[in-house]
Write a structure and sequence with these properties.
The structure holds 2 protein chains of 2 kinds. By secondary structure, chain A is an all-beta fold. Chain A has 1 helix and 28 strands. Helices cover 3% and strands 42% of the residues of chain A. In chain B, helix 1 packs across helix 2. Chain B is globular, with a radius of gyration of 27 Å. Classes of the chains: A mainly beta, B mainly beta. At the A-B interface, helix 1 and strand 7 of A face strand 33 of B.
């Protein structure tokens, strides 16, 4: 659901010279069209894909094959985000401060799109994290720029700040019962080095925003970027760090398991790579993608109940396409029967939505759209 | 009959070359020649007794003495039964007044014309021949003066290609910035990120980095991005601009893959000075000064231009709930530009300073860049020697670019030094050959660049022109070498001069563009990587087929030009994201562009009352990609069109422009398009001449219907805009 890249830091003027942004935006190239829209039918979507470059959310049914359902929903020209969450009939994404700090809500019943803003004074500088939608439809967002936690009721147009001074860089807010788990990357964003200030932290808040406790991640768990609640545990990926000189990944990502009942860290697993994304599969397993070179990726599978990294960095799931070529998945998850679905990111051509068996053997493939960065199981 | 041979005699006195004479008819000529030869005594007698000379000087509305035109002298016989006579006399190239000898008692009509200007007609009734006559021609933006931009080009090349030229010293009122001229040209698009933003140009469906922009021979293209910002150069500091459509690497080297824009600094044309004032909506203000002197020792002059604009305007923020109306901020702009030029004989030199400071606002909806600022400073020096057979120039530019994104981050800066040396020499003989050489040295250092990389490019060029009847072939070949990379750029052009006013041409050539320093040496940053292995992109074919002509239709003149073009670029350099969104440049397979340009004008350029209607448009298709993927280039409209209606009466003129820009994709993903838009501009101008001072005034309302549109998505353009420009000049050659 989330990766260690921060949308506000995607090659924007805040990071690289403005001229390069113009260069990239005016000359970056992709090919083909967006995901073709399939024949509209009454099938229930099994999967949603967020196309960051294409600025759409596309629905797919997953039977024995992948089939697009209807036309992708247009998120508008201002969309600039890379994560989506789906629950309670809503697909929710956020727009970084580069695009004005917005929450984008898609009503999945009719495809209407609404936006919500953040309260002043931070307003468009809130730089929201990936969103989380709880069972009641309430949306929870961290403010990476404002170091705050927000809630948004689906009918509202302005998010409500429920907590401030929450760490240094809130990457995710995970609602579990009456508690909120705010994932603090604990990095230097104010100085724009984005280097870790120490291991990541998790602030445990009440739904009203009062801090109840603080969970310190173990040494070596740097730069946590995402978390999910599964099987009574909170799973956190520490994306790892990069060389401050060459900006090459250092391969020190980790997967941390925290028992929700008492907040104790029960395990930490080295990923031998930098983590990109973490998804909860319908098969009860967690799926992590990693990279060691910023070019190729690996898909790992973790059993949170058994605390077992079933397909670890030494034995990743090698997702294949029809030609038998390995597919570099930006993010991956699994259906209830264990089949794996993953999407690829490409700016030069439409991304790929690949369906494979639990070991990565090819089953089917469809075009997912331009710049696919997330998928969500409803 | 006596009247006829008097007139012929007078024509000889005028000194026009025989081939320039426009006969009244073959029968009349034969008759006149016979009588002329048979009665020399009579001829001498009447010439002495009944002629008078008029000293004629032709000036532009801005006061400059025109040298490239002609005067058609029509003798209107007092007896309607007598045949008319007429002849044409070119204006002296050295700028001296034209002396025409006329016959007393004959009614004459003089039609003065000069490229770049509307013609003017003056009647001289019988018995009223003045000793001196000064004619001021209104500026005609649609007819181009016969000038050549210098530095690195070849005299032979522009024959077989589509090119446009303008002299800003006579048209700085109409075009205060280069972009204002470029948007009138077919095959050219100009875009920017909202009001006050940097301005880049695209030729024939190119990316801006495939257009080489030379100012006094030195590239304006930023070596880091490959793009030239045209917004920082006011035309009050420029002499001319020449736009070459199509690949021009054969004569200009790397970067001219899709075309080139050649700018020259203001030259001294006489002793005197000028003052210009610009007032525009959105806080736009500008002051232009010019002074020069010409003496026996040489000529020296200077220009100074100061400009600023606030560029705060309302826009609808379409991405926020309720689409509120907001005010665009931090788009202000300030610039200072100055030139000093001097010349002695064939030697010429200039030094210019260009500085600008501006806000760099983000797209609508974010305040993230409300304090982002950019500053550019550049010193450009130029020295050139031009003779009829040889030409050489040396240019150097030191450019400092600074950017500060907000208060929290230390600003970054880069320093760029560019040196360019070019020389051309043309041999005589029946087959002229131009041999040329060029050397370019670029270095860059500063934040964001690894080390202090530099690059030297050496190029050799040979070109010729072979004529056979109405046909001319222009073959050319160039070779450029840099760091182990060798680029061969052949070109051949074929021109058929069907008649003096109609030509058809075809051209095919190759070109190349070396990677920018940003491509090769950008310091690694978070999610950004340079690629030292990226290869030069190669224009393997750039071809065009064009035709241009001019025809008289009744009392009007029809002028037209069209060109069909195609270009294939292999290994185009494109910044792409990796599978995990790390950006770096790489070579894709192909970039294909093709299109059609058309410009058609109908005009009745009379002095007392004239009018002109012009239609210009471009259709183009660009696809870039690899394998089976082909996508349109973002922000390149598939169609653009312009309709201009212009009329004038003496020094008063009016002009209406209707401009249409077709739909454009906003990214290579092609999933989103900007709507087409059409705008109207209305302008009025007045030119006066009093006591040797030329006064001109322009008032223009741009987009009076307040159309709202975006050239770049989420960067709103201002709506209605008022432009007032005043210029006064007093120049004595």
């Amino acid at each position: 659901m989330k990766r260690f890249y921060r949308p506000g830091q995607l090659p924007g003027p805040g990071i690289i010279p403005h001229a390069l942004i113009a260069l990239v935006q005016l000359t970056a190239v992709a090919c083909g069209g967006d995901a073709p829209t399939g024949p509209g039918d009454a099938a229930r979507p099994d999967l949603y894909v967020l196309n960051s470059t294409g600025q759409t959310v596309a629905a797919f049914s997953v039977g024995s094959v992948l089939a697009p359902l209807g036309a992708p929903v247009d998120l508008g020209p201002g969309f600039d985000g890379d994560a989506v969450d789906v629950a309670s009939g809503l697909a929710v994404a956020t727009v970084s401060s580069f695009g004005g700090s917005l929450v984008v809500l898609v009503d999945l019943t009719d495809g209407t799109v609404r936006t919500a803003t953040f309260p002043q004074p931070e307003g468009d500088q809130a730089n929201p994290s990936s969103p989380s939608v709880d069972d009641a439809g309430t949306i929870w967002v961290g403010g990476r720029g404002s170091d705050a936690v927000y809630r948004l009721d689906p009918g509202s147009t302005i998010a409500e700040r429920v907590a401030g001074n929450v760490g240094t860089f809130v990457e995710r807010v995970v609602p579990v019962g009456n508690r909120l788990y705010a994932i603090d990357a604990n990095i230097d964003d104010d100085g724009s080095t984005f280097q870790p200030l120490g291991p990541g932290r998790i602030l445990v808040l009440s739904r009203d925003g009062f801090q109840e406790s603080l969970i310190e991640l173990p040494a070596g768990a740097f730069n946590p970027t995402d978390a999910i609640a599964m099987s009574g545990h909170l799973l956190v990926i520490a994306a790892g760090t990069f060389d401050p000189g060459t900006f090459e990944p250092l391969g020190n990502g980790a997967l941390v398991r925290i028992r929700l009942s008492d907040g104790v860290v029960t395990s930490i697993r080295s990923l031998n790579g930098n983590a990109i994304s973490l998804e909860a599969g319908d098969d009860g397993k967690a799926y992590v993608t990693t990279t060691t070179d910023f070019a190729t990726t690996s898909v790992l599978r973790y059993d949170p109940v058994e605390d077992d990294l079933e397909r670890g960095p030494g034995d990743p799931i090698d997702v294949k396409d029809a030609a038998g070529t390995s597919v570099d998945c930006w993010t991956a998850t699994a259906l209830s029967d264990g089949r794996v679905v993953c999407v690829t990111f490409s700016f030069a051509e439409a991304g790929r939505l690949v369906l494979s068996d639990s070991d990565g053997g090819f089953l089917d493939e469809a075009t997912s759209g331009f710049g696919s960065t997330d998928l969500a199981l409803p | 009959m006596r009247h006829v041979f008097r007139t012929r005699r007078s024509r000889r006195h005028a000194g026009g070359p025989a081939e320039k004479v426009a006969p009244a008819g073959s029968q009349a000529i034969a008759c006149a020649v016979l009588i002329f030869l048979a009665a020399p005594e009579v001829r001498a007698q009447v010439t002495v007794a009944e002629t008078a000379s008029v000293e004629l000087s032709i000036h532009s509305a801005g006061g400059e003495r025109l040298t490239g035109g002609q005067v058609k002298v029509e003798g209107v016989a007092p007896d309607p039964n007598m045949p008319d006579s007429s002849w044409t006399v070119p204006l002296p190239l050295d700028g001296t007044p034209l002396r025409i000898t006329l016959t007393r008692g004959t009614w004459y009509r003089l039609v003065a014309s000069a490229p770049g200007h509307a013609s003017r007609t003056v009647d001289l009734p019988a018995g009223r021949i003045p000793r001196a006559l000064r004619l001021v021609l209104p500026v005609d933006p649609y007819r181009l003066p016969p000038i050549r931009a210098v530095s690195g080009g070849t005299d032979l090349e522009p024959v077989a290609r589509s090119a446009s030229q303008v002299r800003f010293d006579t048209q700085s009122l109409t075009y205060a910035y280069v972009g204002e001229w470029l948007r009138d040209l077919p095959g050219v698009t100009v875009r920017r990120r909202g009001g006050g933003g940097r301005q880049v140009v695209s030729i024939r469906g190119s990316r801006p980095e495939d257009v080489l922009v030379l100012l006094d021979g030195v590239p304006l293209n930023d070596p880091v991005t490959g793009r030239a910002d045209l917004s920082v150069i006011p035309t009050s500091t420029l002499h001319s601009a020449t736009l070459l459509r199509g690949a021009a690497s054969t004569s200009l080297g790397s970067g001219a893959g899709a075309g080139a824009l050649l700018l020259t600094s203001r030259r001294v044309t006489g002793t005197g000075g000028g003052l210009g004032l610009r007032l525009e909506s959105l806080g736009g203000r500008g002051l232009d000064m010019e002074a020069g002197t010409v003496g026996r020792a040489g000529r020296v002059g200077m220009t100074l231009s100061v400009s600023e604009a606030e560029n705060e305007y309302d826009f609808v923020n379409s991405i926020l709930p309720g689409s509120p109306v907001e005010k665009r901020r931090n788009a202000d702009f300030r610039s200072v530009n100055s030139t000093v030029t001097a010349g002695v004989g064939a030697l010429r030199g200039s030094v210019r300073f260009d500085a600008s400071e501006r806000g760099v606002p983000g797209r609508m909806g974010t305040s993230l860049y409300d304090s982002a600022r950019a500053e550019d400073r550049a010193w450009t020096t130029f020295a050139g020697l031009e003779t009829s057979r040889a030409r050489t120039s040396a240019s150097w530019r030191h450019h400092t670019l600074m950017y500060r994104d907000n208060e929290l981050v230390t600003g970054s800066s880069q320093q760029v030094d560019e040196f360019r040396l070019a020389a051309n020499m043309r041999t005589g003989g029946r087959v002229p050959v131009t041999v040329g050489a060029r050397l370019t040295r670029e270095t860059v250092r500063g934040d964001g660049i690894e080390g202090s990389p530099g690059r030297t490019v050496v190029g050799l060029q040979i070109a010729s022109a072979l004529s056979a009847g109405d046909f001319r072939i222009d073959p050319a070949l160039a070779m450029d070498v840099s760091d182990g990379v060798t680029a061969i750029s052949p070109q051949i052009g074929l021109t058929w001069a069907a008649n003096p006013s109609t030509r058809v041409w075809g051209r095919a050539g190759r070109g190349f563009r070396l990677p920018t320093f940003g491509d090769l040496y950008f310091a690694s940053q978070y999610l950004v990587r340079a690629n030292p292995d990226v290869s030069p992109e190669r224009i393997v074919l750039d071809a065009e087929l064009g035709a241009a002509g001019s025809w008289k239709i009744g009392g009007a003149r029809l002028e037209g030009e069209t060109a069909l073009w195609a270009r294939r670029t292999e290994d185009p350099i494109v910044w792409l994201a990796s599978a995990v969104a790390v950006w770096s440049p790489r070579n894709l397979e192909h970039l294909d562009s093709r299109g059609l340009e058309v410009a058609l004008g109908l005009a009745a350029p009379e002095a007392h009352f004239g009018w002109r209607i012009q239609v210009a448009g471009t259709l183009e298709r660009n696809r870039v990609g690899f394998g089976s993927n082909r996508n349109a280039l973002p922000y390149q409209p598939a169609a653009t069109a312009r309709l201009t209606v212009q009329a004038w009466r003496r020094g008063t003129g009016g002009r209406v422009d209707l401009r249409h820009t077709g739909a454009r994709t906003t990214s290579v993903a092609g999933t989103r398009r900007l709507d087409p838009f059409t705008t109207v501009d209305v302008s009025l101008s007045q030119s006066l001449g009093r006591a040797g001072v030329g006064l001109s005034f322009l008032a223009r309302i741009e987009n009076p219907l307040h159309q709202r549109y975006e050239l770049i998505e989420l960067f709103p353009e201002p709506g209605r805009r008022l432009v007032l420009r005043f210029e006064g000049r007093k120049t004595r050659e």
